[in-house]
Amino acid sequence: MKDTTIQRHTALVKEKAAELGFDYCGIAKAGFLEEEAPKLENWLQQNMHGQMGYMANHFEKRLDPTKLVPGAKSMVMLMLNYYPEKDLGANEDTYKIAKYAYGEDYHHIIKWKLKELLKILQEEIGDIDGRVFVDSAPVMERQWAQKAGMGWIGKNSLLLNKNRGSFFFIAELILDLELEPDGPVKDYCGTCTRCIDACPTDAIVGNGIVDGSKCISYFTIELKDAIPDEVSGKFKDWIFGCDICQDVCPWNRFSRPHHTPELSPHEQLEDMSKKDWEEITDEVFRTLFKKSAIKRTKLEGLKRNIKFVQKK
């Protein structure tokens, strides 16, 4: 009887996640990530997080979701595709921004979907407790998504899905509800090293290990100081984030355009030339990126990145 209830609840979670527009939903049993503990500790000790001090905080919570949600039994992992209809960086006369930042800030879009999912489950099942997260808590999302059978962690440390590649946002719902876990899938990277070979700053330092402090995304978004001269000429026109290791990945030939209108770019953004970027005003910045993740760099940070990329 109990198993039937668990199966019914599991089917309900996946059905409602699909109705809310999530592309994949996988489930893992909540618990301590024993294998990840030494890897995370080593990564932090080598200062691969750079100025991202928050990565060193809440070490235990990062490895054990039951410390975030007491009594947690299940990790409901969700993926939302953000691959665009058009690659704005394909035009040589423009600067490049990461595809995830083309439209509105994904945090707001996904958070609403997650809260709606939790509310539906509470209405349908009854008294269950849970918390929703999208980059908003110390949760090792890719590792949990891998455990939940949604893909494997590639050499570039991103989650790869055999059917759709890696252009996905990952989010989670941690529940005190017992659900049927999905099994992990095989690693299909094989001997391919395209992402490692293509990274212009040599940030991919091992299989699935990225030195965050060397990544173009880190330099253009997280770093608040001046970008070091030693990486001058290596950014290949990227001014916010970087997709190089994803663009060269063979699995991304299976990527398909997303179906979330809010993730589509502002029409003015599609026509931005290098000159437009170089002359961007505060007014244009606020208009284009009113609801965008690009607001994180502020206009000053974006201008710093553009000037740095011009130094070739």
From TrEMBL:
Magnesium found in the keyword field: no
List of residues binding cob(II)alamin: 62, 135, 156, 159, 170, 217, 242-243
A Pfam family the protein falls into: Fer4_16
Pathway(s) the chain acts in: tRNA modification; tRNA-queuosine biosynthesis
Cofactor: [4Fe-4S] cluster; cob(II)alamin
Enzyme Commission number(s): 1.17.99.6
Keywords, ordered alphabetically: 4Fe-4S, Cobalamin, Cobalt, Cytoplasm, Iron, Iron-sulfur, Metal-binding, Oxidoreductase, Queuosine biosynthesis, tRNA processing
Subcellular localization: Cytoplasm
Residues annotated for [4Fe-4S] cluster 2 binding in this entry: 199, 215, 242, 245
Keyword Cell inner membrane: no
The protein's assembly and partners: Monomer.
Protein purpose: Catalyzes the conversion of epoxyqueuosine (oQ) to queuosine (Q), which is a hypermodified base found in the wobble positions of tRNA(Asp), tRNA(Asn), tRNA(His) and tRNA(Tyr).
Name of this protein: Epoxyqueuosine reductase
Organism in which the protein naturally occurs: Algivirga pacifica
